[in-house]
Structures are given as structure tokens and as C-alpha cells.
Design brief:
2 copies of one chain form a homodimer. Chain A contains 8 helices and 3 strands. The first copy, chain A, has 185 residues and is mainly α. Chain A has a 3-stranded antiparallel sheet with strand order 1-3-2. In chain A, a hairpin with a 7-residue loop joins strand 2 and strand 3. In chain A, helix 6 packs antiparallel against helix 8 and helix 7 packs antiparallel against helix 8. The longest helix of chain A has 35 residues. In chain A, 30% of the residues are buried. At the A-B interface, helix 1, helix 4, helix 5, helix 6 and helix 8 of A face helix 1, helix 4, helix 5, helix 6 and helix 8 of B. Chain A binds a DNA duplex (28 and 28 nucleotides) through helix 3.
DNA sequence: TCGCTCATGTAATGGGTTACATGATTCA
DNA sequence: TGAATCATGTAACCCATTACATGAGCGA
């Protein structure tokens, strides 16, 4: 699936693997992320399949850059994927829920500690969303005003991130209360 | 991680790979699932590491069953994992959000179609939660009343599933409206 | 001087899916 | 008669992470 994320970003403009890593982990990091090593390997495969081309740009005092450009075949592959409807429910894995599910043997206090750490983690994430991210989209639009309709979609997925954290924090607060009442020491 | 799910279930009572598949995909299916092939392979590794033992039970008119039992070392490994706090934020991947993020090139109608299919998928899932699952926990408790405190935790993770679907449906409804207003044909 | 940014990649390993292979019983 | 349930496994493959390898410039 990473390949489609790469094609998606290269559809905006040509860039290097290093830059792609940045865009992926900042813009889509909330629902799709990747390590540099995987990005370089995937770009190599995409080039073998003629979905992207690359050329090396020499630089002074800095390592050379390999800039990737989407081909017509690449653009077509991207659009085919975009148009493909997702028809079945895809459950997502969640380490915390798995652990909580089986946690009775470690007892009330250890469970509550686990949940309180998570509450802290998700409250921070929630604050991050509220404070920092809305302005990022605005600043991109100042540089590329033609992406206004893309930005509507970016904002929509950003709102999902916010709603998700709001829900998660609410669940943690409720669950902490529930366990304080229901589980013995 | 599947190994911990298997240890977790075997901590309730000994069972076969086939039975484990059932428990995993019904009880924890919402936040952890696995194919039979992976379960059999993982059980093999767990036995090599002495975290479980197995013995074959012959059956008439049915294939023999290989029943797995948790060892003391396995129980310890499970408890160590349970007690280990999760301290960093783990982003989850979401195909739909990735697709929506890049979807401007396919245009308004195709995006709306995609979202409406998802709305249907998630409303069905929501109904499933409301109608079918609460009774499942009740029926297990009738057979094993000593698991009452475990059931509090099962119910908590079930509530997360419900809240998640409620949130997802709300996001889809809002996003459909937003795109109808903001994106051109 | 220490860590960050820029910049590219390979190799080994781990986790998970898909495909293959077999076969009896039971229910609609 | 065909699908579901019970029951076990292997092999090939794909996707992703971790570790390894290199190296200059810049700001605190």
C-alpha cells in the first residue's frame, strides 16, 4: 500500500525519497507512515515497474539528490486505485485493547496505571491536533493556492484524527472509572 | 504479537489451534485477528520455546485434536507482557483515509460514492454491535461465572468498538456533507 | 562538541496473507 | 448436492522494521 502513498505524493510534484518521507510522516502520519528504508526500496520497485522515473541532481556541499517523477502509467495506476471502492470492513489492530482484554491477572492497580499512561499519551496527541496542525494546511495553501480542493480532503482526514483522539480519551476516562468501581484489588 | 493473544486465551483453559482461531476472531476480532495458518505456525514456535505444551487427542469420526496447554514459563511471559506499559503513541494505518486524502483527481461523484459505501459498511457494523454482541459475554458468564472480573474488561473493549463505529459514522456523514458543499464536479 | 538535517542505500529478520493439500460429517 | 464445520499443517510470498554503512554542514 505504501506504493500508492508514494504515487499520491508524486502526483503533486516530483521529489526525492527523503522528501517523501517527510511528507508522509507529517501529512499522512496519522493514518499512514513509513521508514526511509522502506521508501527507498519501494521507489526502486516502482521504477522497475515504470510507474516512476528518476534522475540524479548534483549538489554542492550536500549529497546528490535522486528526484522521482510520476509517469503516465504511474498516474493511471494511482487513479485506478483511487476509484476502487473499499467494500468490506477492515478491522484495525490495537495493542492496548488486546492487553486490556487479558489484563485481569495483573490486577486493578496495574490495569489502572496502564490506562492512565494512555490517557496522558492521547491527551497530548489531542492537544497537538488542536494547536499545531490546522495552520500547516493553511501555509501549504499560501504557496500552492491551486490545491484548495485537495485541502478540503486533507482537512477531512485531519478531522478524523481529532475525533478519534476525542473518542479515545473519553473511552479511557470512562473505563478508568468503571474499573475503579468493578474490579477488586 | 499474536503469540500473546494465544497465551492470553490458553490462560483461560487448554484448547486446540482451531478453537483458538474461533475465540480470537470472535472475541478480539475487532482489534486483533489472525488466519489459521498463522495460528498453527505460531503455536509451533511457542512450543519450541516451552511456553506451551501439546498432546494429541484421538477422536472417532473426526480428525484428531492437538490440545495446547500453557506452561508456567508461558504464564510468566504473558504476565510480563501484560504488566509492560505502552508509553508511546502507535498510529494505526487506515486504507480509506489514505485514499480519501489523495482522491481529488477522481472527482466529487467518485469520492461521494466511496464514502457512501463506507457509511453503509460502518452502519452495519454498528448495528451488529448493538444487537448481537452484548449477549455473547452474558452466555459465557453463565458457563464460567468465575470470569466475572474478566468480563468487565471484555465489556470495556467492546464499548470501544461501539464508540469507534459511532464516531466513524458521524465522521462519514459530516464529510459527505462537507464534500457536497466544497468540491466542484 | 554534540546532535540535527540533509541524503542514499542494503541485508537480515519478523509478522502476516495467500495458496496448496486432505478428508469425514452434518445440515439445508 | 453443495456448503459449513471440524481439524491440521506447509510453502511461497509480501510488507514492514531494525540494523548496518557513510558523510558533510550547521547551530546550540
Amino acid at each position: 500500500m505504501l506504493k500508492f502513498a508514494l504515487l499520491g505524493f508524486l502526483n503533486y510534484f516530483p521529489m526525492t525519497g527523503y522528501e517523501l518521507e517527510n511528507y508522509i510522516n507529517v501529512s499522512t502520519g496519522n493514518f499512514w507512515h513509513a521508514k526511509l528504508s522502506q521508501i527507498y526500496a519501494t521507489l526502486k520497485k516502482l521504477e522497475q515497474d515504470d510507474l516512476v522515473t528518476s534522475h540524479v541532481e548534483a549538489q554542492e556541499d550536500r549529497p546528490d539528490r535522486r528526484v522521482y517523477t510520476l509517469t503516465d502509467a504511474g498516474r493511471e495506476t494511482l487513479q485506478d486505485w483511487l476509484a476502487q471502492p473499499i467494500t468490506d470492513y477492515v478491522p484495525k489492530k490495537d495493542d492496548l485493547l488486546l492487553k486490556i482484554f487479558f489484563s485481569r491477572p495483573i490486577g486493578k492497580d496495574a490495569i489502572l496505571t496502564q490506562l492512565r499512561i494512555q490517557l496522558d499519551v492521547h491527551r497530548r496527541k489531542q492537544q497537538f491536533y488542536e494547536q499545531e496542525t490546522p495552520s500547516v494546511i493553511q501555509s501549504i495553501l499560501e504557496d500552492f493556492p491551486e490545491l484548495a480542493e485537495d485541502a478540503t480532503l486533507w482537512q477531512a482526514v485531519l478531522r478524523m484524527g481529532m475525533m478519534h483522539e476525542e473518542m479515545y480519551v473519553r473511552w479511557l476516562e470512562e473505563t478508568i472509572q468503571e474499573i475503579e468501581r468493578q474490579i477488586s484489588d
